[in-house]
Write a structure and sequence with these properties.
It is built from 15 helices and 16 strands. With about 425 residues, it is α/β, with parallel strands linked by helices. The chain has a six-stranded parallel beta sheet with strand order 2-1-3-4-8-7, with helices on both faces. It binds zinc ion.
């Protein structure tokens, strides 16, 4: 009971064209991108990392503000995970709540696996079975217009709509272009503030009176690997900027660390290898990573310093950018000679650093840095959704010229 012809972005634009006072709660993943792409409105409430929570949150808002129309716009994956909330909606039945599920039958964020709606689960019948009398399915632009006209309603009980949308490639050139800063053309200047790490490199370079040559910054929501040509075009733009800037003293890259593309299992290793080929062996290359990276042999072989953020949730990209800048600058000046070692941790999981035992581990890595020749210790959590042999958690230690010491410390074993 899923999938259709409608373009999800056009559906959401049509739903929100005359939104008035409508409060919109968007479910994590594509729906949040769809809603933000229409307009970053004060009454948008984006959910991120809250899978299954969109309807429950919308219900709470609708009950708290009974005369304010509230629309939950989410995907079938989020709805399936929070299905129990439909039963609660039915018992409360607020007339100011509308639920719109953009149903493509796919878990977009984790790589386009089929959801239960692609295998026969019928969300409209489930909503009706829960007791939401006003539940229907839309698959044409005319039917979507009909839904839009009902979103302002505040009486007559809650409404549930399932809209059959097309299963397009969720991560492609368009996705990256939406979150892109291209200094050469001035595109995305207003997005620079969100480009943590990257914007810090630029600021620090200027503060140190360096000649700063900025290249492309872009990001996209994780999903299935993007098409090969899309990745190569963006990569080649960065490499062309680097070539044009030569000779350079240092290279700083803000990378996620777990990107894949069609034909490339290790995009960051590929970028680092090509950057190394351009600048030669003597120019220090530093890369800041999201801790959800998969650190590969190719990345280690071609970077001078790899440093991951330490906190999950990620609140320290700017601090780590400053640490990395400092190490790479000192390496250039010959003050230090960074060498790296990696220890693989055979675990797959999510490890918030706000809780124990992760909190102590992170504090320990901080305490080790800056003394006894230890330059940096990164606890890299890995990105479990990357299906390739080098996926996994690791510790990356950078020492000053002492490879054996780096190798000895990387396992993070408590001292006897
Ligand atoms: Zn992350």
């Amino acid at each position: 009971m899923s999938g259709g012809e409608l373009d999800r972005r056009q559906v959401v634009a049509a739903l929100l064209a005359g939104r008035g006072d409508l409060v919109v709660v968007s479910g994590l993943g594509s729906a949040t991108y769809d809603v933000a792409a229409v307009e970053d409105h004060d009454r948008n409430f984006y959910l991120w990392g809250a899978m299954g929570g969109a309807v429950a949150l919308g219900l709470g808002l609708a009950l708290a503000r009974p005369i304010t129309p509230v629309a939950v716009i989410t995907g079938d994956g989020d709805m399936l995970m929070g299905m129990g909330s439909l039963a609660t909606v039915a018992t409360q039945n607020p007339g100011n709540l509308s639920i719109v599920v953009l149903d493509n039958g796919l878990y977009g964020e984790t790589g386009m696996q089929r959801t239960h709606t692609a295998l026969g689960a019928d969300l409209v019948r489930i909503a009706k079975g829960c007791g939401i009398a006003h539940a229907s399915r839309a698959s044409t632009a005319g039917e979507v217009a009909g839904i839009a006209a009902q979103l302002q309603g505040t009486a007559g009980g809650a409404r549930f709509f399932s809209v059959a949308v097309a299963a397009d490639v969720p991560t492609n050139r368009r996705s990256f272009e939406e979150l892109l800063v291209r200094p050469r053309t001035g595109e995305g200047k207003n997005r620079l503030d969100d480009a943590l790490g990257y914007k810090d490199f630029i600021r620090l370079g200027k503060e140190h009176q360096m000649r700063v040559v900025e290249s492309l910054y872009c990001e996209a929501q994780p999903s299935a690997p993007p098409p090969q040509a899309d990745y190569e075009a963006l990569r080649d733009e960065i490499l062309a900027d680097l070539k044009a800037a030569m000779p350079v003293d240092i290279v700083l890259l803000m990378l996620h660390g777990a990107q894949m593309a069609a034909g490339y299992d290790d995009c960051e290793g590929d970028i680092l290898e090509r950057a190394r080929a351009i600048v030669g062996a003597d120019v220090p290359i530093g890369a800041e990573l999201d801790l959800h990276a998969n650190v590969t042999a190719k990345m280690l072989a071609n970077a001078t310093v790899l440093m991951a953020c330490k906190e999950f949730p990620h609140i320290d990209f700017s601090e780590r950018a400053a640490d990395l800048f400092d190490l790479v600058r000192r390496a250039r000046q010959g003050e230090i000679r960074p060498v790296m070692a990696k220890f693989d941790i055979p675990m797959v999981g999510a490890y918030p650093t706000t809780r124990q035992p992760m909190r102590s581990f992170v504090d320990e890595t901080h305490a080790m840095e800056g003394k006894d020749g230890v330059l940096s210790v990164s606890l890299v959590h890995g990105f479990a959704w990357s299906d390739f042999p080098e996926m996994g958690a690791s510790v990356v230690v950078v020492t000053d010229g002492d490879k054996a010491k780096a190798e000895g410390l990387a396992p993070m074993r408590p001292s006897p």
